[in-house]
């Protein structure tokens, strides 16, 4: 986007910004209709509803097949963009559920496997989702191979995973700020300079870390306390503190492996 190749221009002004939020724009908004904030919000809403009603084994294949059906049945760009988002989002959800089953020794649901397998010919046909397929293979390899599990558990990668949502949330606003700063001096971002990308990456990581610590974690803890308080008021079981449960003692070799 900073190199000018992904439709991020910032030229739409307030009208373009508001239009983009509801998928109504004339291609001058800062974001692409198939990668819209509206699509993101809809997917997270569907994720919550699907996981609450269908569960982690059934929700991904149902949503993936629904996305494929929508994509094949319409030429309306807004709906095809939503369908692509639906497939990619729940492909990741299904891959995570399959990886959880593999790690725990459980057998993945046949319906889940069918849903994941259905994406392969579809992605090959429309020549997209290459990143999703690579991520799917990577998750499977990490779940199966112990050396990769240990690598994925390294502190730097765990820290990056902790702020990954914040990175996603702030990277586009930072791109816009950098574009506007260079436009203010009558130039364009020097996307061919290594120092510029270092500045961009450093800004994203620093601001995402601050956002994670000052906003995401406090809000998540407040929501957890509220949900637990509601559960207690409904007569549900009282929550058990993880710190209060003694960890089982393991032989040194097994402890190091964990």
What attributes does this structure have?
258 residues; mainly alpha; globular; disordered C terminus
Q: How many strand elements?
A: 0
Tell me, briefly, the overall form: globular
- Return the average pLDDT rounded to an integer: 74
Helical content, roughly?
over 70%
Contiguous helical run count:
11
Taken as a percent bin, the fraction of beta residues is under 5%
**Gap between N and C termini:** 40 Å
CA radius of gyration: 22 Å
Structural class determined from secondary elements: mainly alpha
Biggest beta sheet attributes: none
- The poorly predicted ranges are 1-10, 27-31, 239-258
- Provide the succession of SSEs: HHHHHHHHHHH
Task: Give a structural overview.
The chain has 258 residues and is mainly α. The protein has eleven helices and no strands. The chain has helices at 13-21, 37-53, 59-73, 77-104, 110-126, 130-144, 146-152, 155-162, 164-184, 194-233, 252-257. Helix 6 crosses helix 7 (146-152). It is globular.
Quick summary:
The protein has 258 residues and is mainly alpha-helical. It is 71% helix and 0% strand.
List the helices and strands and how they pair.
Blueprint lengths: L12 H9 L15 H17 L5 H15 L3 H28 L5 H17 L3 H15 L1 H7 L2 H8 L1 H21 L9 H40 L18 H6 L1
Helix pairs in contact: 2-4, 3-4, 3-5, 4-5, 4-6, 6-7, 9-10
């Amino acid at each position: 986007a900073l190199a000018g190749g992904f439709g991020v221009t910032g030229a739409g002004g307030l009208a373009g910004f508001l239009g983009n939020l509801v998928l109504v724009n004339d291609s001058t908004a800062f974001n692409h209709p198939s990668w819209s904030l509206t699509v993101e919000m809809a997917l997270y809403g569907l994720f919550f509803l699907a996981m609450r009603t269908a569960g982690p084994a059934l929700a991904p294949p149902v949503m993936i097949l629904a996305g494929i059906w929508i994509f094949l049945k319409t030429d309306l760009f807004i709906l095809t963009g939503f369908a692509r988002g639906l497939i990619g989002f729940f492909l990741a959800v299904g891959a995570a559920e399959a990886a959880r089953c593999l790690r725990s020794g459980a057998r993945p649901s046949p319906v889940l496997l069918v849903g994941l397998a259905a994406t392969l010919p579809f992605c090959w046909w429309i020549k997209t989702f290459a990143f999703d397929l690579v991520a799917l293979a990577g998750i499977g390899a990490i779940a199966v191979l112990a050396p990769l599990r240990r690598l994925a558990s390294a502190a730097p990668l765990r820290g990056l995973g902790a702020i990954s949502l914040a990175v996603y949330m702030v990277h586009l606003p930072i791109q816009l700020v950098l574009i506007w700063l260079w436009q203010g001096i009558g130039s364009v971002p020097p996307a061919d300079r290594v120092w510029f990308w270092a500045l961009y990456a450093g800004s994203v990581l620093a601001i995402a870390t601050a956002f994670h610590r000052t906003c995401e974690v406090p809000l998540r803890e407040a929501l957890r306390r509220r949900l637990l308080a509601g559960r207690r008021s409904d007569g549900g079981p009282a929550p058990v503190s993880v710190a209060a449960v003694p960890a089982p003692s393991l032989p040194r070799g097994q402890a190091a492996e964990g």
